[in-house]
Design a protein that fits this description.
This protein is α+β, with helices and mostly antiparallel strands. The protein is built from 6 helices and 5 strands; from the N terminus they run αβαβααβαβαβ. Strands 1, 2, 3, 4 and 5 form a 5-stranded antiparallel β-sheet that branches. The structure holds flavin mononucleotide (FMN).
Length: 199
């Protein structure tokens, strides 16, 4: 357990209020080291069949976001060589929308038949959710985005993932502006039911 847990806000209450903040509404400052340590510590509380610890978070900040943009544009061009230059520039600029981009993924152990890759991905995804909740609880904003480049072996390798690992998303993070949305969610009734076999 991290030793700076005492001053934390009431995280359970935040679970009922979290919402994504679109990348274009995320500003500096990015979550600092201690905020990110807490978020990763929360991720490590996800259920972990077999104790495989699949959670991986790669932080990309500052000028390195430009290098990530180059990687994404190259990936797009490799997938679709006829992509117009303007579209490639849009892709290249994407990581610059927020002060921090996190490549979130799962290190997959393929040697454990009792714990198939989908379970390890599920654990990593649960970890990402804890990560997002902990950022939100500390006043930061974030959103979880995907793109075809998540599957690109060249992108995965450049970010330090093995070919058999799973890159699960791009987490854009920063400080939300006043204009951040907090859309309401429906109540629980439509999403729960009691099983009544034979009745
Ligand atoms: C695995 C995953 C991938 C996602 N990818 C995208 C995406 O590429 N583009 C997008 O607009 N939203 C994407 N979303 C949805 C957003 O993260 C977010 O949930 C959505 O904007 C609704 O906001 P809310 O979380 O406040 O309901 C993705 C969500 C998940 C779980």
């Amino acid at each position: 357990m991290p030793d700076n847990i005492a001053p934390l806000p009431a995280v359970p209450a935040d679970l009922l209020a979290r919402s994504s903040v679109p990348a274009r509404l995320l500003r500096a400052p990015a979550p600092d080291r201690s905020a990110l340590d807490l978020a990763v510590s929360a991720a490590l509380r996800a259920p972990d069949h077999g104790g495989l610890r699949p959670w991986r978070f790669v932080f990309i900040q500052g000028e390195d976001r430009g290098a990530l943009g180059d990687l994404l544009a190259a990936s797009m061009r490799a997938r679709a060589p006829d992509t117009p230059a303007e579209r490639l520039e849009v892709e290249r600029a994407k990581p610059l929308r927020a002060p921090l981009v996190v490549a979130a993924g799962a290190a997959i152990n393929h040697e454990r038949p009792g714990v198939p890759p989908w379970e390890q991905e599920a654990s990593a995804a649960a970890g990402i959710m804890n990560f997002l909740n902990m950022l939100d609880a500390q006043g930061f904003g974030a959103c979880w985005l995907s793109s075809p480049s998540l599957k690109d072996p060249a992108v995965k390798a450049a970010l330090g993932f093995a070919e058999g690992d799973s890159l699960l998303g791009w987490i854009y993070a920063g400080t939300p502006g006043e204009d951040r949305p907090r859309p309401s969610r429906p109540g629980p009734d439509a999403f729960r039911r009691d099983w009544a076999p034979g009745r």
